[in-house]
Specification:
single chain; 465 residues; alpha+beta; Uridine Diphospho-n-acetylenolpyruvylglucosamine Reductase, domain 3; Alpha-Beta Plaits; five-stranded antiparallel β-sheet; 15 helices; binds flavin-adenine dinucleotide
Amino acid sequence: MEQIVIDKLHDILSSDRIFTDKADLYAYGFDASIHHATPDIVVKPKSSEEVEEIVKIANEYGVPVVARGAGTALCGQAVPIHGGILLDMTGMNKIKEIRVEDLYCVVEPGVIYAKLNEALAKYGFFFPPTPGSGDVCTIGGMIAVNASGMRAIKYGATRDYVLGLEIVFPYGRVRFGSKTLKNSAGYQVERLIVGSEGTLGIITEATLRISPLPEKRAVALASFNDVVKAGEGVAAIIASGMIPSALEIMDKVCIEAVKKAMGIDLPDAEALLLIEVDGKAGEVRESIEKVAKILEGKASQIEFTDDEERMAELWRGRKGVLPSLSRYGEDMVSVSLADDMSVPISKVPYAIKEFQEIAKKYGIIVGTYGHAGDGNLHTKVLINPKSPDAWQRAEKAVDKIYKAVNRLGGIASGEHGIGITKAPWINGDIETMERIKAAIDPKNIMNPGKMEQWRKSIIAYLRYR
Ligand SMILES: Cc1cc2nc3c(=O)[nH]c(=O)nc-3n(C[C@H](O)[C@H](O)[C@H](O)COP(=O)(O)OP(=O)(O)OC[C@H]3O[C@@H](n4cnc5c(N)ncnc54)[C@H](O)[C@@H]3O)c2cc1C
């Protein structure tokens, strides 16, 4: 990077918010994906004005800019593969406004999801998307990836809550959307930014819709001796017209991994469904009784609980699947490949069966869990990351998995996004995406080379040596 760019950055930010030390740069080169690349410089802006000035300099000198929230992205979205400036957005972490009477809040992009919900809970409200990484991930990262989680079946994804955004594009700072719940006043560019993964502009402020917290929750844990039966259970619950607040599935590999790594009391089964209902106390009781009736004869065992401690333990087990998988076998880690496909709800059990067959054929282990209620599955590939042969087999298996997903009418990502790792299977017309990108970012400085621009094998820029 040219010295003049570094000098100009020093004119904008104090030195304690500029990082050029080798170790810092190396550490900032990771997200939670299989990829790694080192930025030339890291800066930590504190205001929209600073972001605007930084981006202006980057645009003038054609330097790549990659925004980074908490770095929990699973597909390499926050990895600066072409070097350049990494913007650490965690310094912009103010909750600017909470207006429950108008059902919105205004936040800076570096606010952590759980912190926002702590603040909203004091008013009896919450911001519902609930990603598994919610204790650490930022609102900016969630918007940029359209994150969601186990409550999406009832409450939707981040995009459903974005009312307005302030964005810094290469040509300047602009605002789209509003603080109103309805808006038919022009292009909804704020929607275009949702899921754009930092490839168009930097989000510097967000106005988000909020929801009242439910009064009560209850959970049913149903065990199945066949994954297809579990899938039939899911389809029957959805077809009954009830919308649970969560409907999660875990296959045998995941159940065993959680039991082994976390010591959580789960039944031995081929598949588990974790079903949560929420609402007023009376409604919750009625809904959970309905679940019991629907699953009668399908599940081999059902546990019901509204005990806060047991519910917290079960959710801890579900959220712990991902780290637990890395402790499943000797010399094996869970790598984020093919980790987030979405299929029509009724196709979930067939998808899981196909994934298991593909894994067997290519000699790898695939654990599958996820949001069965909305058809969004998380397969985790377990391999020895030091074995080039294992990577090759995994890449072939991943391609077969996505082909199966397409055959079943699904898409590559339901919530984790595209980045590098899912780029070959991106959904939609690439030429249109490139036209939008070129119109907003003609010098291609915003997170270049990702999504529709990635053309190579996904086994690239590996974090593993
Ligand atoms: C254990 C674990 C569990 C997870 N569970 C879920 C889950 O249930 N659901 C889910 O959806 N995801 C999940 N994820 C993936 C990830 O946590 C989410 O995508 C999250 O929203 C990313 O937020 P972040 O702050 O870490 O963003 P980062 O990883 O830092 O960045 C993600 C992308 O957003 C861009 N970005 C960040 N901030 C801005 C900004 N201000 N302006 C423009 N672009 C920006 C980055 O450039 C990058 O492209 C999980 C990850 C882990 C490690």
